[in-house]
Amino acid sequence: MTGDAVDLGFARVDIAREARQGLPEVVYGTGKTAAEIVSIVRTLLRHNEGPVLVTRVGDETAAAVQAEVPDGRFDSPARLLVWRPAAPVGFGVVVAAAGTADQPVAREAAAIATAVGLTVTVVTDVGVAGLHRLLAEQDRLRAADTVIVVAGMEGALASAVGGLVACPVVAVPTSTGYGAGLEGVTALLAMHASCAAGITVVNIDSGFGAAMAAFRLSRVVAGRA
Amino acid sequence: MTGDAVDLGFARVDIAREARQGLPEVVYGTGKTAAEIVSIVRTLLRHNEGPVLVTRVGDETAAAVQAEVPDGRFDSPARLLVWRPAAPVGFGVVVAAAGTADQPVAREAAAIATAVGLTVTVVTDVGVAGLHRLLAEQDRLRAADTVIVVAGMEGALASAVGGLVACPVVAVPTSTGYGAGLEGVTALLAMHASCAAGITVVNIDSGFGAAMAAFRLSRVVAGRA
Amino acid sequence: MTGDAVDLGFARVDIAREARQGLPEVVYGTGKTAAEIVSIVRTLLRHNEGPVLVTRVGDETAAAVQAEVPDGRFDSPARLLVWRPAAPVGFGVVVAAAGTADQPVAREAAAIATAVGLTVTVVTDVGVAGLHRLLAEQDRLRAADTVIVVAGMEGALASAVGGLVACPVVAVPTSTGYGAGLEGVTALLAMHASCAAGITVVNIDSGFGAAMAAFRLSRVVAGRA
Amino acid sequence: MTGDAVDLGFARVDIAREARQGLPEVVYGTGKTAAEIVSIVRTLLRHNEGPVLVTRVGDETAAAVQAEVPDGRFDSPARLLVWRPAAPVGFGVVVAAAGTADQPVAREAAAIATAVGLTVTVVTDVGVAGLHRLLAEQDRLRAADTVIVVAGMEGALASAVGGLVACPVVAVPTSTGYGAGLEGVTALLAMHASCAAGITVVNIDSGFGAAMAAFRLSRVVAGRA
Amino acid sequence: MTGDAVDLGFARVDIAREARQGLPEVVYGTGKTAAEIVSIVRTLLRHNEGPVLVTRVGDETAAAVQAEVPDGRFDSPARLLVWRPAAPVGFGVVVAAAGTADQPVAREAAAIATAVGLTVTVVTDVGVAGLHRLLAEQDRLRAADTVIVVAGMEGALASAVGGLVACPVVAVPTSTGYGAGLEGVTALLAMHASCAAGITVVNIDSGFGAAMAAFRLSRVVAGRA
Amino acid sequence: MTGDAVDLGFARVDIAREARQGLPEVVYGTGKTAAEIVSIVRTLLRHNEGPVLVTRVGDETAAAVQAEVPDGRFDSPARLLVWRPAAPVGFGVVVAAAGTADQPVAREAAAIATAVGLTVTVVTDVGVAGLHRLLAEQDRLRAADTVIVVAGMEGALASAVGGLVACPVVAVPTSTGYGAGLEGVTALLAMHASCAAGITVVNIDSGFGAAMAAFRLSRVVAGRA
Amino acid sequence: MTGDAVDLGFARVDIAREARQGLPEVVYGTGKTAAEIVSIVRTLLRHNEGPVLVTRVGDETAAAVQAEVPDGRFDSPARLLVWRPAAPVGFGVVVAAAGTADQPVAREAAAIATAVGLTVTVVTDVGVAGLHRLLAEQDRLRAADTVIVVAGMEGALASAVGGLVACPVVAVPTSTGYGAGLEGVTALLAMHASCAAGITVVNIDSGFGAAMAAFRLSRVVAGRA
Amino acid sequence: MTGDAVDLGFARVDIAREARQGLPEVVYGTGKTAAEIVSIVRTLLRHNEGPVLVTRVGDETAAAVQAEVPDGRFDSPARLLVWRPAAPVGFGVVVAAAGTADQPVAREAAAIATAVGLTVTVVTDVGVAGLHRLLAEQDRLRAADTVIVVAGMEGALASAVGGLVACPVVAVPTSTGYGAGLEGVTALLAMHASCAAGITVVNIDSGFGAAMAAFRLSRVVAGRA
Questions:
Q1: Cβ contacts (< 8 Å) between H173 and chain F: which residues?
Q2: With an 8 Å Cβ cutoff, are F14 and C130 in contact?
Q3: Among the partner residues A14, A173, A204, nearest to H133 by beta-carbon distance
Q4: Disulfide check for H199: which of C35, E205, F143, H162 has CB 3.0–4.6 Å away?
Q5: Contact F44, F13 (CB under 8 A)
Q6: pLDDT digits 0-9 by tens, G133-168
Q7: Measured distance between the N- and C-terminal CA atoms of chain D, rounded to whole angstroms
Q8: Per-residue pLDDT tens for G89-99?
């Protein structure tokens, strides 16, 4: 250990971010072996006190990690491993997914938001090509502290929701669809060019980014309580 | 004159398209002088029988042309010159424009469609960030034989209209907006990636293309009458 | 069931679109398991009365679904499953494919158009590098109510057909070819930049989109009969 | 007036958004004449009760509008006209601009945020190539309820700030710089690819978008008070 | 003078290329003053024996240069200045231009090719949206030693001509059109993705490049005579 | 057989191109089964008299085809099957490949050019980062009737060769390299932006396109003999 | 003055960078008024001891600044203002420019490098389409401590120089040329994809960036002396 | 052997570059078989005297080569084979990697730099989202003769390091991350648009390019000793 970091050889783990910055520890699982994840998680559990999350974990790797580090919960569709989930802080998030294909990203957003203490409702199949279904969810959307919109293809749901609610809207473009969707780039650009005022955007397929954006806001609210 | 074409030196005018293909003659005005337009229009009026249109004409050029070729009507916001407009054929088109900035393109689409015999209604400011205004126009949209959707920025209106009506929807992306709108390319791609089934797209800012697409549709109906 | 939708857990199926909008139900098969498709198809067959289609289905999945839901027909080259195909409505579509490599998309367009009641003729190998073959098909093209042009590489066939016929032309860019074709993006852009007036374009490889665009028009004609 | 909108001929003004959605009325000034802006502002002042803003207004247009509609204040560097600015709601925003060239966008963000009731501090010249200057502002940044980061070129300031504070960070890419900056597209993409968790992004040069995003955040806090 | 070059201060003129490589001297006029062009042309006339050309010259600059250097001929539409044009070498080139807007580039190609000794025929308005006009020119196209195809928008003419003739086809994409034409990039890509075998492509708007490509071939033929 | 084409079910084979246009028959092998290739080749051999080529054929498919259609020769590195190769016509082509990774494309170009009657010399490892090696080949390059330059990465070899020789230069960008090479798009653009006058470019990795371009050139010379 | 910065209202000037980091102060002139430049330069001259440079300054602005701040020298072609130029440190830089159009960028690089103490030789018109001219400069290139290559269009000169010398090569892509050059993006990508080992690249048209990169190199050598 | 090259059939090996240019021989392993690598390495070992390196070699290929050519050392994470590594020349390089995912590229840079005689220190996990960790390494960074920055995603580390040190900074964008990172293109562009003066950039993932750039500088220093 040198200062704030524990050197595991393959990575230097920052064990002071939780205290220093106040954000929970989230490990990006892609490309890491089960053994590496085990090492990192153990280090974080030992040196921190809050939730420890690992994203983008496959079923096999998750099982191997859970066998080594007790008390971890795995959400398979969200590909998320969680230890010491946070208690609810009373901040309501609605995750609105445009289509069936957007669900994996919506699940990731919902699972991470829940693990860090937010209260999540998921609303699906509310793409703008079926406005009556979206409008049927207006009350739920308006009751939210933040809406996370998950949409691929043309990403139009972000604009529609942005025009319905006054709370923060975080848009997640997804890489669903084919051809002119350009693996999510079209949705990302379209969400930025949106005619709805004040919606913000995170990276393609980043349910994680949206959940953390919501968490940042929840902290401001909590700080006021 | 060699065969089907009249050679004006600066251009060879196809005087047989009307008879051969059945589409009205439309001259692209950009980059042509008033004198050139006068020559072309006179040639077409003499050798054809249907409407003659010139698109993308500025006010000064239009006045100069009108002074030389009688009976032309100029629609300044649409930048369109028309001789011998067609009689109405009983085919209803609704041009739906998302925002104020999309109006020049909507005007071009409406004016050309009218000149070739279609019956046009224009609906404006129905962008998806204000769904209640779009929904208030549902009946008019559903009564159309074809809807032309004109929208820039994220182009989401095409998807929303595509989900409301069962008639043909022709989407025109516009180059309005800034930044991530990429001069209309984002809207073009987004309209193609739309989640609404069976909507079609024409070139950026091409009110002309949309009007001609609607005209092609009207001919099928007319051929059945 | 909540209102218009049946919640199957993994998806909320809209069972009222057929009645509400008048478009047939088409399920996008990519990424769905046989079991999921079975559930959705059963729901749609029970709550609707028109055709039920599933696109982009592989041979194995199709067989598994057919074993569970009787009376489905599978068109393997088109990768399409169909229940309750529509009776012919007397609307003629010619699907013109530029080259051999464009055939899978042409097959999808033709099979879907047929399943929703259109009368389809397929014309192949009429790319613009062999104009005599295209011109040999002029009469068939001119007799159509709509021509669907399927072409990859440079997509030039759309312009050529657009100059031959006066009926609607729906162009489908395909991802065939290599290098500068950019997976269909070049053909999509080229079709939009076409010098032929009033042709429209759908998404890359979307035989489905083209068929539905033709169906939308057929409804207008039918509404006039 | 038809329903919620007042039709001014050149535009249909939505006079019910304030009541319906709770967002202040902001008119996009680009491309509008002084006379058009006067009409719209008068309509909004009459039918609403909150602030009325017009963005991207040049000096001459602003003077002409102010001469017709009393009590408007003009912030020239921010290109913003304001009537009935909101009283402070007690929500602190720090606008951090990377370089001198980013100041016009930072000014727009700050002026709009102030006009809608937020308390704004501007911090300039804190680009990552001079980390000591950024770190010297740590306390101010950490005291904010939200940080708006304005940065062009490579946009790296967003990541650095995102790692320093736990509150929401809204990043605005700017079109400053030349060459590989691609008019702001590089900064937009870079901010999305950021290694800092939970930062969000708005459109290129959109100080307006960032201010409105902050306003949406402030409403959640206000709703809890 | 140092070795093969004459140093004029603002440029070092290669006076040995003609002898060394056998290509005529062509000066790119864009960005050069009349005085600079005068210097370069004089140097080349003195040290070489073949044709001297200056491309992309405006009318005023041309007049100023002609006043200083006798015997130069200026082709205004082609923007070309020529001294000592080559005698015809008996090599036939057809320049086929798709539309009226492509004529400036076609003129440049034709004028340069003529100046270096090729025998040029220009064929215009033969875009693929009017196949009958193209086919009417078949005999002329087939009699050529090389066909230069000049086309913007979707660039489809290159494929069509490539399928009609067996001689070399050099395609020049032009920056005509708008929107999806992407300033000629779409035509360039489309020409490369062409389904016609063995056509080659030069830079956007480069009538010069196409003429020089034809000249290179004429030399091979001449070398065989 | 309908007119000029033989319909094989999966494809309509043009059996009159050889007579009509004078180009040899080349079948694109990608995506075709051995059985399909056998059918097409047999049809072409029966109805034409010249060479029959199949490109992009793997070893297994080639063996299967050769077992069914006698007298075919297979060039494995070039992935080319040939029947009835043309007798040499006395037209010299040098294929110059920049690096080892460009060899498969160079092999394809060389094998096809040879099969259609050209006399081919291959020069390898002459990239511009080793100018002495390129210059050592100057005499061979200058003796050619046409040089085919095959180069990936930055594609600079085309410019260098274009400055050394006066004969036609056909450049083939390749998809070798990684990162900024963008799968050959960078080389394609760079070759077009070349400072060498009159070089032409074919599609990425298209050794076939370059060989056919050279064949077209050879026909002009042959026509003069 | 707050800490290391002097706040001039429109900018906060870092007066400690020279001491802290050891790089000379260079002000980016674009978008700054003469008055602003005067303020900044005076501040830097007062608080630092080394050279003060202002880049991208037009003739009029330069004269106005020189009238206010004595002893400044202006290099008009390089658009550079300099006070207190550094004494030569004995580090030799060759700036090699491919063509005439690349000279403004080459001039900027040379002037800045000279002002910070490097010894500069400029070599022009050595593009790869004329290899003999490049090779004639081999000795000068090989004698350099660093070569700055300035080249637009296809940028091939960087690879050629990279293969001739063993010293550091810094490549500057320029926005010269048209069409496929894409305003310098093609050259930038091509230089990165170069086959020459260990060459590095700076931003498009950034003679400044290249000069500063050379200065950084010179410091390492100086540190060893 | 012809002149400077040994022809191995599949490649012509340049055996004189070491003597001619002074750069060590580095073979690009991708796409080469073990047998081919053995041939090339033997040729280079026989005809040269310095280090021989093979990059991008997998474990199996490496073992096969080592079995045939004695005394080779393999660095598996760096995928590098080395024979006759150079003795240290006393030139210090710090390789700074932003995140764990950037380590393979950092390893390649470090291993190659070491093999050619540089003294390398690797610093990891110093991305700008954790500035305190970067600042903790300031002294090590400032002691370097050259810093190689390896960073993907938004590539901001290059700017931050560029502002901390005065020595040369060579930035390597990596293809880590997803979505808006565009496989490293975003980082490459962002590094070029950097606000830090005089940093240079090499190709995406090219640890090799960065190491060779450092080597070139070390030679200048060595030449002064």
A1: 179
A2: yes
A3: A14
A4: H162
A5: yes
A6: 999 999 999 999 999 999 998 789 999 999 999 999
A7: 37
A8: 999 999 999 98
pLDDT of C1 higher than 80: no
Report residue D3's pLDDT band, with 50, 70 and 90 as the boundaries.
Answer: low
Angstroms from C110 CA to nearest CA on chain A: 20
ipTM for the assembly: 0.94
How far, rounded to the nearest angstrom, does the alpha carbon of residue H14 sit from its chain's CA centroid?
21
Q: Is the pLDDT of residue C3 over 60?
A: no
Q: Looking at CA atoms only, how far is residue C150 from chain A in angstroms?
A: 14
| SS3 assignment, position C4 | coil
Does G124 contact E184 at a Cβ distance shorter than 8 Å?
no
Amino acid letter, residue H181: G
Per-residue burial over D153-187, b = 16 or more CB atoms within 10 Å of its CB, e = otherwise: bbbbbbbbbbbbbbbbbbbbbbbbbbbbbbbbbbb
Of F124, F132, F182, the CB nearest to H4: F132
Please check the confidence at residue D4 and state whether its pLDDT lies above 80. no
Token digits of residue B53: 């249109």
Q: Which CATH class is domain A92-222?
A: alpha beta
CA distances from G50 to B225, C43, D100, D189, G92 (A): 87, 79, 23, 37, 20
Q: Which of E168, E216, E221 is facing F198, going by the closest CB pair?
A: E216
Domain with CATH 3.40.50.1970 in chain G: 92-222
Q: Residue range A105-129: average pLDDT?
A: 95
pLDDT digits (tens, 9 = 90+) for D77-106: 999 999 999 999 999 999 999 988 899 999
Identify the residue among B27, B220, B224 best suited for mutation to test binding to C, counting C beta carbons within 10 A and taking the highest: B220
Q: What's the pLDDT score for residue G73?
A: 97
Measured in angstroms, the CA of G100 and the nearest CA of chain H are apart by 24
- How far away is chain E from the Cα of G20, in angstroms, using its nearest Cα? 41
In this structure, which amino acid lies at residue D41? V
Give the other-Cβ count within 10 Å of A48's Cβ.
19
pTM of the predicted structure, to 2 decimals: 0.95
CB contacts of E225 in chain F (<8 Å) are 224
Are C188 and B193 in contact (CB < 8 Å)? no
On the CB side of A192, CA atoms within 13 Å amount to 34
Are E175 and G180 a contacting pair at CB < 8 A?
no
The average pLDDT across C208-224 equals 93
B and C in touch (3+ CB pairs within 8 angstroms): yes
**H179 vs A4: CB contact, 8 Å cut-off?**
no
Looking at residue E225, its pLDDT comes to: 66
The end-to-end CA distance of chain C, in Å, is 37
- Tens of pLDDT along C123-172? 999 989 889 899 999 999 999 999 999 999 878 899 999 999 999 999 99
Residue G140's identity, in one-letter code, is R
Closest CA in chain E for residue G107: E10
D200:A208 CB<8 A: no
Least CB–CB distance from A203: residue in H132, H136, H179: H179
F touches which chains (3+ CB pairs under 8 A)? C, E, G, H
Listed in sequence order, the DSSP H helices in chain A are 17-21, 34-47, 59-68, 103-115, 131-135, 138-142, 157-164, 185-192, 207-224
Contact: chain B with chain F (3+ CB pairs below 8 Å): no
Low-confidence ranges of chain F (pLDDT < 70): 1-3, 225
pLDDT tens-place string over residues B143-184? 999 999 999 987 899 999 999 999 999 999 999 988 999 999
* pLDDT number for residue D147: 98
Q: Which of G14, G15, G189 to mutate to test the interface with D (most CBs of D within 10 A)?
A: G14
Q: How far is CA E108 from the centre of its chain?
A: 5
For chain A, the helix, strand and coil percentages under 3-state DSSP, each to the nearest 5: 45, 20, 35
